[in-house]
Amino acid sequence: MKTDAAIKTDKELFKRRNEPIENVAKINILHLAPAQLHRHLDANIYLQSSMFILVLYGTAEIEINFRKYEICRGEIILLSFGHFFKIQHFSQDFRCVVLYVGKEYIDEMFSTDMIYKRVKYGVRMYKTPLLKLSAMESDLLLQRLEFVRGIVSNEQHRYHKEMILSALLIFFLDLSHIIEKEVQEDSGNKQSRDELYFQQFLELLVLHYKIEHYVEFYADKLHITTHYLTMILKRLSGQTVSDLIFQLLFSEAKVLLQQPKLSIQQIAEEFHFSDQSAFGKFFKRKSGLSPKEFRQKMNA
Predict the structure, then answer these.
(1) Following DSSP, what letter does each residue of 251-300 receive, concatenated?
(2) What does pTM read for this prediction?
(3) Would you kindly state where each structural domain of the chain is located, as residue ranges?
């Protein structure tokens, strides 16, 4: 289902007005009601980290990798690197807790116990990134999230980062236990061939979109024709390969242009445009502003 709304990266989600992009918090825990949802999650978001949304009250409709899900109290949404998502509709009594864990902390988790890998791959996260919890499980995860929140807020602690990682580890262990039990009970739920291709394409896309801008590369990697890949994407997402690549490039370009240490030439090279002029034309076509004008506007 195609949408006209621009894609944002998670780096833009919790950024306050005029805040340097490099200062945006690497970990956030937020209690969100409808007003805050409009402010923080008001766009199609391309995730470059991890996010967990525990629903406390009410109902909502969320689109994840272009598939719609109805969510309600006692469910948790598991989002990770490479997911596209948007909360589209929600009841006025909707309340949730969101845990956002940036790449810095995920890398630390990988280097310690690989616990996040168990969470990420323990469930068909592209197939069904949604878990229904028992009342006891929901209460337990809420307690863990509140514990992490308290640790994060105690910035004066001499071992602040180490405490955060330890608190996250406890949360992930409990979540892994719930996920692995769920997977065992639902082991017969198989993906179709096209859904597998779609998942594999998204995984390739997030790794290569800065360098590989053409459908032929992705089709070759999947050992299918460009026509077949295009058909799968159009049917499952409403997008074309080019749509997704250029939206990701534009979203990431907006983030990099807010980093004054990077020249526009360096950003053009980062995205493998033939030259700075080609990058400038691409960016202006998407935003109506040249990269220089966009940078000046953001720094005004």
Answers:
(1) HHHHHHTT-TTS-HHHHHHHTT-SSHHHHHHHHHHHHSS-HHHHHHHHH-
(2) 0.65
(3) 7-185, 193-299
